[in-house]
Structure formats: C-alpha cells, structure tokens
Amino acid sequence: QVQLVEAGGGLVQAGDSLRLSCAASLQAFNSYTMAWFRQAPGKGKEREFVAAISWIEGVIKYADSVKGRFTISRDNGKNMAYLQMKSLKPEDTAIYYCGAEPLSWMDVTSRGHYRYWGQGTQVTVSS
C-alpha cells in the first residue's frame, strides 16, 4: 500500500525557516515526480502548486510565489522528498501536501497530475 507521510510543519514567526519532509513507501521511488502543494485556510481556497522535482536529476519547477525562498530536494536512497522553506511569510500559512506521480512531467503544476497524496502537515507563520 502506497503511503506518503509528511512531517516538519509547525508554528513559526515571519522570517523563520522550516524543513518539511515526505516519507514515501513507493517502489522505484527514483522513477517518481515528487511535488509539494499547499492549501491555505478559508472557504474556496484550492490546493496550489508549490514545487516539483523530477525523477530526472536537476529538473525542478517552483511557483513564482516561492522562488528564491523554497528549495525542493529528494534523497532516492531514503525514499524521501524535502521542502526547505526560508524567509517565511504569513501568506505561506497552509496545510502542505506531498504528491507523487511516476514517470511524468507533463503538467506538474496541476494537482490532478498526481495519483498519490499524503495527509498533509500544517505550517503556520505568524506576523
């Protein structure tokens, strides 16, 4: 059974850093695109793309809102994906979800692209 388990969320102040992790029980993890999405609190807020990293080394994409502040990475030996977040802002407050999709980079910014999801980890940034 495939499981993605996020960890590392918490309550921080604006300007602080956090590192999220995603532990994946996926066979052939190194063949998956891994991504981070987030869903901010409030009615009608959709799950939005944050960052994705391909199974192909060096292929990465970021949302404009996090470029230069967030870094996505992966450790294929440990079946782990990470999201290093720096210079956090109150508008980064959201539940952060890890997604996984094998061997595809067609539409990585779309949540429909990913067949596997974790349960999410809450990140709250106070001003």
Structure write-up:
With 127 residues, the chain is mainly beta. The protein contains no helices and 11 strands. The chain has strands spanning 4-7, 10-13, 18-24, 32-39, 48-53, 60-62, 70-75, 80-85, 94-102, 116-117, 121-126. The chain is globular and about 40 Å long. The protein starts with a strand and ends with a strand.
Cα-atom Rg, whole angstroms?
14 Å
Instruction: Spell the H/E element sequence.
Output: EEEEEEEEEEE
Q: What is the CA–CA distance across the termini?
A: 40 Å
Strand fraction: over 45%
Class by helix and strand content?
Answer: mainly beta
- What is the 3D form? globular
Number of strands: 11
Secondary structure: helix percent:
under 10%
The helix tally amounts to 0
**Mean pLDDT metric:** 96
Low-confidence stretches: none
The biggest sheet amounts to:
7 strands, mixed
List the helices and strands and how they pair.
Layout: E1 4-7, E2 10-13, E3 18-24, E4 32-39, E5 48-53, E6 60-62, E7 70-75, E8 80-85, E9 94-102, E10 116-117, E11 121-126
Parallel strand pairs: 2-11
Antiparallel strand pairs: 1-3, 3-8, 4-5, 4-9, 5-6, 7-8, 9-10, 9-11
Describe the structure concisely.
The chain is mainly beta and 127 residues long. 0% of the residues lie in helices and 48% in strands.
Main features:
48% strand; mainly beta; 127 residues; 7-stranded mixed β-sheet; 4-stranded antiparallel β-sheet; globular; single chain
